[in-house]
Structures are given as C-alpha cells and as structure tokens.
Design goal:
The complex is a heterodimer of chains A (about 425) and B (about 190). Chain A is an alpha+beta fold and about 425 residues long. A five-stranded mixed beta sheet of chain A has the order 5-4-13-8-9. In chain A, about 20% of the residues lie in helices and about 30% in strands. Chain A has three domains: about 55 residues, no CATH class; about 160 residues, Sulfite Oxidase, Chain A, domain 2 (Alpha-Beta Complex), CATH 3.90.420; about 130 residues, Immunoglobulin-like (Sandwich), CATH 2.60.40.650. Chain A is globular. By secondary structure, chain B is an all-alpha fold. Chain B has a domain of about 100 residues: Cytochrome Bc1 Complex, Chain D, domain 2, CATH 1.10.760. Chain B is globular and about 60 Å long. The relative contact order of chain B is 0.15. In chain B, helix 3 crosses helix 7. Classes of the chains: A alpha+beta (about 425), B mainly alpha (about 190). Chains A and B meet through strand 5, helix 5, helix 6, strand 13 and helix 8 of A and helix 2 and helix 6 of B.
Chain lengths: ~425, ~190
Amino acid sequence: MASKKASRRGFLKAGAAAAAVGAIKTTGAEAALPQAQPQKSLKELVAYGERSKFVASVRVPVLERPSPDQFGLIFHVLTPLQDQIGNITPSSLHFVGTHRGAIVPDIDPKEYKLMIHGMVDRPLEFSYDDLKRFPSVSHVHFIECLGNHARPEYKTVQETHGLTSCSEWTGVLVSTLLKECGVQKGASWIVAEGDEEVKGSGSIRLAKAMEDMMVAYGQNGEPLRPQQGYPLRLIVPGFEGMYNTKWLRRIKVVDRYYMTYNDYGHIQKDEEVAALTFQWGPKSVITFPSGGQQLPGPGTYQLTGLAWSGGGVVRKVEVSADGGQTWKEAEIRSAVHPKAHTRFGMTWKWDGQECVIQSRCIDELGQVQPTRGQLAQHFHEPPDYYKTHGVQGTDNMIQPWRIASDGSVHNAIA
Amino acid sequence: MRSPRLLLPAMILAACAAGWAQSPTYGIGKTPTEDEIRAWDISISPDGKELPPGSGTAKQGAAIYAQKCSICHGTTGSEGPAPMLIKRQNPPANAGPCVAPCIRDANVMAMHAPYATVMWDYINRGMPFKQEGSLKPDEVYALTAFLLFKNGVIGEDDVLDQQSLAKVKMPNADGYAIPNWKPGQPRPFSAKP
C-alpha cells in the first residue's frame, strides 16, 4: 500500500515538473498538457547513475503538511526508513528540517568563506579550498531532529522516526581549526551561524567543539547536497539536529551561552530538561516489520531495524515479541560507529498470532532505551502520559508495533 | 632516506612544545580586518556588547510595525497568521505554553525571552519575512521597544539603545537554565534492563 502511494506521488510530481518545464519552453494550449519525461541520453546515463525505475522510495513532508508552509516556518521532510538498507542513508533521501526552507541556498564555493573569530588569538577566514588543505577525517554519524516524536496517530516508521538519517561525513575537525586560531583562556562556548536567509545560529559548549565536532564538506563520497548545507556544514555528533548548522559561515568563540536564534526556542527552566535537548539518548526502532507493512502469512522473516545513541557506540540491541515481557539479543549487522545508526536484525518466526514487537538499545555508557511508562515514572507523570504528550527534550522512547492475526502491522503506541 | 623520516616526528614535537595556543600549525587562511568582522558579527550577547549605535522608541516602532510587520503578524500583533507578538487581553483557557515557533500566548517573545537582546538579535537577523537583514539598527531598536511596550514591559517613551537595551528587566529573566553537558556524560535517567 505504502509503496503504491509513494510511487503515485512520485509520478504526479514528475508530471508536474514536466508540465512546468513545458510551460517555460512553449506557449499556448500545449503547455498545459503533461508531458512524459524525456529519455536521458546515453551520455547522461553514463555520466551520472540513477536508481532503477522499479525503486520508488521517496521522502514525504511531516503529516502531509505543505512543506514549506505559508510562512516558511516549517520545512520538515521525512526519510523512508522502512525502505533503507544497511546503516547509511542515501544523500538524496536524507531528512530535511530547516526554517524558512522556501529558499535553499545554493552557494558558489568560489564565493564562500568561513570566518572564525571572537576569543581567539588569530581571527581567520578560510575559503573552500583552504579547508581542503587541512587534514581531513571521515566519520559516520547520525543527525536527528528534536521533532522526531512518535505519536499514536502516525502509521509508518517514516512518520514516527523519519527525522533521523546517517551519513559518512568528511571534513576537518573543529578542534583543528580552533587550534589554528588559538583559543583564548576563559572561552567556554561557540556560536555557529549559517548563511541562509535568517542566518540561523546556535550556542554549543566549547568542550563539545574540541571533542568531536567537524566542519564537513563531504557526504557519502561526494560534496554535500545543497539541502544538507553545501558547501559546508557543522557536524555535532550525537546532538540534536538543529546544532548541525548548514551553510556554515561563521564560528564565534565566546565566554557565555548566547541564547541566539535557534537557542531561544529551546530554553527550559529546569536544568535537567535543558540538558536533554543536547545529547540524544539510546534509541532504536524496528523497520521491518513496521507500521503499514503486511506480512503475507506465518513463517520465517528477517526482523530488522536501526539503533543509535548520542552517548557513543551501540553495545547491544534487544528485541521483544511479547509486548516487553521477555527480551532476546539481536545480531549487529553493520559496522558499529560511535553516534551512528547501527543495523540490527534476527531471524524470526511469526506463528500467525497477534503480537507486539519492539526493540531497545543499550549504549556504551550503559544507558538503556526507556519505555513510555518508565519515562512517565521518571518525570512523575501518569503512566499513559507520553502516549498523548510530547516528552521533555529528545524523544528516545521504545516504539512498539502490533502485528494483527491477518499479518497487518500497526503503531502500538495507542 | 633517513632524515625525512625523523623530520616529521621532530616537527610534531616542536609544535607540541610550542603549545597550540601560541602558534598556528598550518598557516592556512587569511586574517579578516576589524571592519570585515564587524560587518559579519551579528551575534548579540545578553550583555549587549556587540550592539551597534542607534536608538528607537515604541512610538517610532508602531509606524514601522504597521508598514513592515502587520501583513504577517496582524494589525493587533495577536491574530497572526504568523506567530503572536502581542499578548492577548483574554487568552482562551487552553492556551498553554509551547515550543517556538508557535502561536500561543505564553510564547510571545517579549514574555518568553529572558533578555531583550534576544529579541533584538532575532528581529535583526530574521525579519521581515523575505527581506531578512534589511532593517537598520534604529528600526530594530524601535521595533523591540514597540513590542516590549505593547506587552507591558517598558513605557511608551522609553528609549532603547546600546546602553539601555540589555538593562531591560524581562518578565522571564529567571525562566531558563543553562544546558549543562560534559563529554561522556550519561543522561540524567536510565531505564533498567
């Protein structure tokens, strides 16, 4: 069902694009007729490979809302986790979350520069080519949006968890650049700023910048896509997506929390809750079988999913097929990187009876992914509170799927 | 053959001995001028030290609001459709707090922002929609004064400038905690397996 819907949407989109091209090139009545996409020339097919016409996996906007909305306030597009293979998200399917996304900057790298200033001995400006003269690193990391909340009304894993993606990022460690500038005594925070229309910016602790942050110009073996910040973005491994500033143009080293554009919307009165929006907790989700999918009948399947944590590497993933009463360790089926999506799976027999399946992640810090009930207990709320309310900070709660006796799979939060 | 092999470790040792705060390792990049830094540095600290010269009052701001803001935020500043800027007199009972950007009373920026500098910075870099960055410092001071006056934070004739803006006592001045974080630190709770 889901893939039929998706391919239909893809078809309509392609038709609209073809019509738009027609409208520019021609005049009169013929412009209104949808035209078939012209066949690509052999030269084009050789130059840049495309996926099979039988593969129709696409991103969708959150809640089918127009994206961007009327004021360009929200531009959130979900990655199709149910279709993803392995642990890397294709760059073209990486989720997008940005403000004022109506205008995605497409910056000429020749015109581009990154400025580092503030509490440093030597303020410096780097061109795109300058940055490539520093030693590079390539690290696999997830980026997940704070808005990645599973709700009872969401049907598929794309809707419940589609605001997380994982790539191999290539660039220069922020610590390398900061050392080149010479950080002064007393500095404790940095303010990072993007080059989009609102110059979105956020405050990050200097300790994080020196630990593992990177300015990335590469994603999965090629330059960043414009929607991912071309020519340069910040990677803040394991932190909320918002801090991974796209179209990065400026880093200012400072001695206090600046509470700038992006920080302001996230301020919290409670110290514990304020810290929760920084580092993602251990999280996992089963992507097969998952909501909206259909098992053809009883038999043997490969149950699989993704696990990750902002606290480091995934140590262990456990799966329950009886609503959380008993748990069995799953196999890790991809390379394990710190603060990265990790593929897990197990050979699993479905007996045809209704059941609830779920996974939980345990990370290198010993943190265990909580249920909704456990989180409610921690925050002194009624047991069912987080079925209907957003959780404080980042949402890493266990996602249950109910498999009905007819093989249909449903979101089991409700 | 031998000396190049020894040279690199020797160079690294030399760099370490010098300390990274004192000298650059790669010598890559260009030094921006003071003017170039000032032109780009639009981050305004809560103490207001980066604020540019200029000033404005609520009366001046009212005219600018009508001309440049009301088309999205509404004539009264309360009816939208863009996020609410001026608190309503009688908000509905279900108008609870929420995370920005959203359109509920408790989230009105003049009520929610702990510092007036946060508003100045936000308006300066992010407004008006599709003409971001086009406002002059006097206009940003005036609009900040207008919104603070309309929400009952300052008086109609109060002048906001480089000195006075950061001194405005905001209603939510104590309503935030600085997010605490250290490398390798677990979150404050963890479920038991």
